[in-house]
Amino acid sequence: MGELYFYIKPYLLSFIPIFVAINIFGILPIFLALTAEMTAAEKRKNIVESLITATTIAIIFMLVGKLIFLIMGITVADFKIGGGILLLILSVNLLLPGVAATREKQYQDAGIFPIGTPLITGPAVLTTTLVLIDAFGLFPTFVSLVLNMFISWIVMINSDRVARVIGLNGMRAFSKVGDIFLTAIAVMMIRSGIQEAYKLFFK
Questions:
Q1: pLDDT tens across 151-200, in order?
Q2: How far apart are CA 27 and CA 49, in angstroms?
Q3: What is the DSSP string of 75-120?
Q4: So what's the pLDDT on residue 127?
Q5: Rg of the chain in Å (alpha carbons)
Q6: Rounded distance, CA 103 to CA 179, Å?
């Protein structure tokens, strides 16, 4: 039993931080809001696109992230601020009057942005994977990432069941609340990036 735990430990200890960083259950209300006007086929398409996007970005970043940051002089703080600004523009646009009429058109690529990135794979996931590679190695981190993406797929593919329980009015409420949460997440990312940049500048 002790030997089994010894071999499983790196996978377990790398799985948990990635699960927390993705926070798929925190993303679910936003996902429901962004896909509220989609057909079942469009929603499935966006789920696949979001997970392919999120997984691809995370794997590429795991392999060459440190090198890219070093070559381009980019910090994690820069990454958070840039992603936050993009999210803020989207969320403010969604909250403006008259956007509901064009909502379906705007959400056709929601799987890539903002669901795939930066919601599923954002600065938290990217930085977490880099830390885990140093601590537990590339393979345990990779396996943990893939398992977490699989869990994310299960949660999102069953989101329609949640929608049926909530009902039409509930979905409309989720839609607005999701837009507000999106704005809050964007502001949080920008604020966190500015704080980290300040610490780097004045350390």
A1: 999 989 998 787 677 766 776 676 677 777 777 877 887 888 898 888 88
A2: 16
A3: -HHHHHHHHHHHHHHHHHHHHSTT-GGGHHHHGGGTIIIIIIIIII
A4: 82
A5: 18
A6: 12
| Residues 184, 146: Cα–Cα separation, whole Å | 28
Tokens of 125: 């996931």
Q: Per the structure block, which two tokens stand in for 41? A: 């086929």
Measured over the CA atoms of residue 181, residue 147, residue 41 and residue 121, the dihedral's sign is positive
In order, the DSSP letters of 12-43 are: HHHHHHHHHHH-HHHHHHHHHHHTTT--HHHH
- Tokens at 198, concatenated: 């300040």
Kindly state the tokens that stand for 13: 């200890």
Q: Which of 179, 173, 187 is nearest to 110 (CA)?
A: 179
Task: Say which DSSP state 122 is in.
Answer: S
Residue with tokens 């010894």: 6
Domain coordinates in residue numbering, the chain: 2-202
